[in-house]
Design goal:
Layout lengths: L1 E2 L5 E2 L3 H4 L11 H20 L3 H17 L5 H24 L4 H18 L4 H19 L8 H14 L2 H4 L2 H19 L6 H24 L6 H23 L12 H14 L18 H18 L18 H14 L1 H23 L6 H11 L6 H25 L6 H16 L3 H20 L6 H21 L9 H19 L10 H23 L6 H30 L7 H20 L29 H18 L1
Antiparallel strand pairs: 1-2
């Protein structure tokens, strides 16, 4: 860190260095071993058969399968690998048809980029499929492919076979592990009630629940009849929601009572262990719970006993599960809806057009200028500019830095390792780094992939050390095109929509407040848990979007930083709503409808101000800016809405200076 002559410490801005800090993540040893075998085995077979180029091509195709194998459940992993490979086959077919036809290749790859960008909004599998469609089209158009051309896609089949070897022995294990992990995250949340760690633990619970529901519900769309074991896991995951709500309510316990007794989180951990130990049924988990001392503990007691009862029921008892959180539609119905949304969505067209523009420019550049190994330029643009992968600016910077780091590793490999059988252990060692480094961040993933790509490319082109500098030049050109055309000159980069997204979430919070207290206590409407789960998921998505925006240069990054405290405040408003409703359900007096309407109106006014960019209305006669809609501040008697009103007041106070 440099020191300014006048004593001011100089350091790079946070938005520039955020992606260079390795993320704390464990090494996925199974993925490490799978990547090592998947990339080195085809190469060994090719050398043994006297066709090293074919082995290198299959290994190159396996690389895409290794990168795309990010799911947990085996059925999801099957689709995550198999479906993109089909799109990759289409891509390499289109690419080989226009190989050597400069301007035809420009037109075809631009059109493929448009399709790739548009389908990215459909879902994770479609996003990877679109990526592989474009990548293989670029490779096929820029590299002379050995016949048959589909050899490139055979590598994905190798990864798929290696992945499925464990299915007979570990079928259902990832699903049980995900639900058990969700219970453990809730146990930590219960333990943190009323402590400074409460908010952090709540966010961890939201992420864990999102992952578990995605895993189980996506799994069920492909087994529409629903197996008993899967139905049971969904029932146990649904039973976790009341525990989460009770833990939120425990935050409002009087401070004089001290922290929650350890018996409460210990009971949640006991339920987690019963799930993780296997699909045994018919035996209730013994719970040693203390006598409840207030509404929050009564809610916890009831929720834990219900979760234990659900776990003890036989599988057939869940056949009539009401499925309050919503059963997914059949796959063909969801596919039709997603395709319609992609075609009619303005965001999907904007993403597609931006990607098409940059790919078209990349192809024009390599058609006009004598750029060696020209397909690397478009490959770089594809990885950097894939719209659903996050910040274009930060990815371009990280891609350039990661490529430079990977080249430093590739130089001694290309210079010292003799071509032939020595390539097999070398590729095995380098491939093992890809899953390990991918968990640390995008720059680290790029640094791990670069030497593997260079080594496999050398087996096809036999240029050795001569590949290094052209690879660096092409990467820098691709990053430059993505930065200039896809970021600096793209209007959307300077008119971020994070404010609109936050306004939508605040409006949803307003509707949730009105819904939470509608009806008499004990009459929990079916729409309430659905709205609550959707709102928590939306808040998690908003948080992720803002965290990506924080890595953008001015003005986007500073604007996101200014709004960031409001994101946290809205999360606290939603939690306070849930906590208050739970306490009302377990003994607190019901709030007057007028007070509920006032708070909902305040949130609606805040949402409107966020959309329009206008200041909030001034404070009412009592000086409370959070009750300007109706002027209601509380009735005589216990102020059950006091904590919720305080959170809304804090949200408005945070928003007021930013709105001006």
């Amino acid at each position: 860190m440099a020191q300014h002559p006048h004593g001011v410490r100089l350091s790079p801005p946070t938005w520039l260095t955020a992606g260079l800090r390795p993320q704390p993540a464990p090494v996925p040893w199974a993925a490490v071993a799978r990547a090592s075998v998947a990339l080195s085995a085809p190469l060994a077979v090719g050398l043994a058969a006297g066709r090293p180029a074919y082995g290198a091509l299959v290994s190159m195709g396996a690389l895409s399968g290794v990168i795309g194998d990010t799911a947990d459940a085996y059925r999801m992993r099957f689709f995550n690998i198999a479906v993109p490979q089909l799109f990759g086959a289409v891509g390499v077919t289109l690419g080989t048809l226009v190989y050597g036809r400069d301007w035809t290749a420009v037109a075809v790859l631009t059109l493929v980029a448009l399709v790739s960008g548009m389908i990215s909004s459909i879902g994770s599998v479609a996003s990877v499929s679109g990526l592989l469609l474009l990548l293989n089209a670029v490779v096929g158009a820029g590299l002379p492919m050995p016949r048959p051309w589909w050899t490139l896609t055979a590598g994905g089949a190798v990864v798929l076979l290696l992945t499925l070897f464990g299915w007979p022995l570990r079928g259902g294990v990832p699903e049980r592990a995900a639900v058990a992990d969700s219970y453990r995250s809730v146990a930590a949340f219960v333990r943190a009630a009323g402590t400074p760690e409460h908010d952090e633990r709540r966010q961890a619970v939201t992420q864990s629940l999102n992952a578990s529901y995605d895993l189980l519900l996506a799994h069920r769309t492909r087994r529409h009849g629903r197996s008993p074991g899967l139905t049971r896991l969904i029932a146990r995951l649904n039973a976790l929601i009341p525990i989460v709500e009770a833990a939120s309510a425990a935050k409002l316990r009087p401070a004089r009572l001290g922290p929650l007794p350890e018996a409460w989180p210990a009971a949640v951990l006991a339920l987690a262990d019963s799930i993780g130990n296997g699909p045994r049924t018919g035996t209730a988990v013994p719970l040693e719970l203390p006598e409840p001392t207030g509404p929050s503990e009564r809610a916890l007691d009831r929720a834990l006993r219900y979760a234990a009862a659900v776990g003890a029921e036989p599988d057939h008892a869940h056949a009539a599960d009401p499925d309050r959180l919503g059963r997914p539609a059949a796959p063909w119905v969801r596919t039709r809806r997603a395709a319609r949304a992609a075609l009619l969505s303005g965001a999907s067209w904007r993403y597609g057009l931006r990607l098409a523009l940059c790919i078209g420019l990349a192809q024009v550049v390599v058609s006009v200028l004598p750029v060696p190994r020209s397909y690397w330029v478009a490959l770089t643009v594809t990885f950097v500019l894939k719209p659903d992968f996050g910040s274009v600016f930060s990815r371009a910077v990280l891609r350039a830095l990661g490529t430079a780091g990977g080249l430093l590793l590739a130089v001694p490999v290309l210079a010292e390792v003799p071509r032939g059988w020595w390539d097999v252990p070398t590729v095995a060692a380098l491939a093992a780094l890809i899953p390990a480094f991918s968990a640390k961040g995008y720059a680290f993933q790029t640094a791990a992939i670069t030497p593997v790509i260079l080594l496999l490319s050398d087996l096809l082109n036999h240029q050795g050390f001569g590949l290094v500098l052209p690879r660096l030049y092409d990467s820098l050109i691709g990053c430059g095109i993505a930065l200039v055309a896809g970021y600096l000159c793209w209007p959307e980069s300077w008119h971020t929509r994070i404010g609109d997204r936050l306004a939508d979430t605040v409006a949803d919070a307003s509707a949730y407040v009105a819904l939470a207290f509608a009806g008499a206590p004990g009459q929990d409407r079916p729409a309430r848990p659905v709205r609550r789960r959707r709102l928590y998921r939306d808040l998690s998505a908003v948080r992720s979007e803002f965290q990506r925006a924080l890595t953008e240069p001015p003005p986007t990054g500073p604007r996101a930083a200014a709004w960031w405290p409001l994101v946290i405040a809205v999360e606290r408003v939603v939690e306070a709503t849930t906590a208050t409703r739970v306490r009302v359900e377990h003994g607190e007096p019901a709030p007057p409808p007028g007070e509920v309407a006032a708070i909902a109106a305040d949130l609606a006014a805040l949402a409107g101000a966020l959309r329009s960019g206008t200041p909030l209305p001034g404070p009412g006669p009592d000086g409370d800016a959070a009750t300007t809609a109706t002027g209601v501040t509380g009735a005589t008697g216990p102020d059950v809405l006091g904590p919720l009103r305080s959170e809304v007041r804090a949200a408005c106070a945070i928003a007021s200076p930013v709105l001006g």
